[in-house]
Each structure stands twice: as C-alpha cells, then as structure tokens.
Design a protein that fits this description.
The chain is α+β, with helices and mostly antiparallel strands. The chain has three helices and six strands, in the order βααββββαβ. The chain has a single domain (3-119), classed as Alpha-Beta Plaits (2-Layer Sandwich). The two termini are 19 Å apart.
Length: 121
C-alpha cells in the first residue's frame, strides 16, 4: 500500500491562547482520526506531535566544512509544522480523503506521497 505523510501546519500562537478544554477537544479529534483511518481500511504507521518551533535548531550548509546554526529561516510564517502522521492508503484519492479528516483547527494539512524506492532498479 502506498504511504503518505500528513503534515500538520498550525498557528502556535492559537494554541497558546486556547485553554485546556480546547486542547482536550483537539486530542479527542486525533483519537477519532485514528479510528477513521482504520475504518477506511488504511493504516496509521506512525504519528507524532512536535515541540514548539522555538525549540528547533536550524542548520545551513550541512555535510560541508561550513555548517552554521542560523536563526529561524522563516520567521514570517504564521503556521509551522507541528506534527505528522505517516499513513498507508490505497491511493492518492483515499489519502486526500483521510487528510480532510485529520485535525488542524488552527491551520492546514499537507498530504504528501512518499517515494517508494524499493522498486527502483
């Protein structure tokens, strides 16, 4: 079954302003999402929430002698990567349908197919 990465991009500020009830409601949505994926005959392979972007390290020039840590390279972004699900779905259409069910109340979901190099010659 093809794999897809569902990238959850959201506003960190919106979460800071939301209360515990809102957080619990969103977590319930994520639990419901896992059940919806299963019910569709697809599979959640993995999924994680990321710590705030303020905890990230940004590196430029990797694998060179001039690797440099840099400040946030995109400070103007209003929505940042906050988590992901790696799913297996029948095809692009099913992955898109499941992406529509993935919670992102303060942003959007990016559905991205994973390259399958196992068939490469």
């Amino acid at each position: 079954m093809p794999q897809y990465l569902l990238l959850i991009h959201e506003s960190e500020q919106a979460y800071q302003g939301a209360g515990e009830d809102s957080f619990n409601e969103i977590m319930a949505m994520h639990n419901d999402f896992g059940e919806a994926v299963k019910a569709a005959g697809a599979k959640v392979v993995s999924g994680e929430a990321l710590q705030p972007s303020s905890t990230a390290t940004y590196l430029r020039g990797t694998r060179t002698a001039d690797v440099q840590p840099v400040d946030n390279p995109a400070p103007e972004l209003k929505e940042v990567l906050g988590g992901y699900y790696l799913i297996e779905a029948a095809d692009d259409a099913q992955a898109d349908q499941l992406g529509r069910l993935c919670p992102a109340p303060y942003g959007y979901i990016e559905v991205r197919p994973i390259w399958d190099f196992s068939q490469a010659q």
